[in-house]
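Subgroup meeting minutes
Present: P.N., E.W., G.H.
Scribe: E.W.

1. P.N. recapped why we're keeping a running log of single-chain structure predictions: easier to compare across weeks, and new members can see raw inputs and outputs side by side.
2. G.H. added today's entry (237 aa).
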Amino acid sequence: MDTTSPPQAARGWSSGVIRAAPIVLGYMPIGIAFGVLAHKAHISALNTLLMSVLVFAGSAQLIAVGMFAGGASAPSVVATTFVVNLRHLLMSASLAPFLKRWRPLELATFAFQLTDETFASHSARFPSALPDKAEVLALNMTAQTAWVFGTWLGIVAGQIVADVEPLALDYALPAMFIALLVLQIGDRLQVAVALLSGAAVVGLLLLGVGQWSVIVATVIGATLGVVLETWIKKPSS
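Output recorded in log:
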């Protein structure tokens, strides 16, 4: 049973909204770009908004729009987005130990709104001190609200802007994620793991691994991190 008092819950919600501010700044332009691209692909405004409300997977949504515009079938779109989002299994597994006392509905809500960016924020905070449920859920909900609002703005802008590419909106999301990653790095070992993981992704992409490269590189980076940490902490004989 959740015994959080109303004032504490209110503080948690406000704190979650504040912590989501960097994510909001990144999601808004990308949401706008998605809305514009969906409009150009002749996807209805209702379906575009529903995709952001019910799917909420930024990169997968952009890929889906491109596939729909290219005449791809629904099964192929579903299969592609499934592979793209397989990384969420790894992200959820890493956070699951901290949420053992959460109820099933709370876990389902959290899992649905877990993205790369909210994961980065949570993974930096959970190990030191698990925030109130209100703060955690408020961060996730604020992020999705920003994405949906950006999508709506993009639908409106799509009737005016012919091409979003010159605006470089696609750079906002990688830039935001790099900033979140830098804030999490605290020592040379983490720097090494981040660089090795990035190099692994690039190498796998060049080898033609495709969307699986992110998952494989994550496993490689995590494994190297554990091996290096164990080696460093191993007492000298």
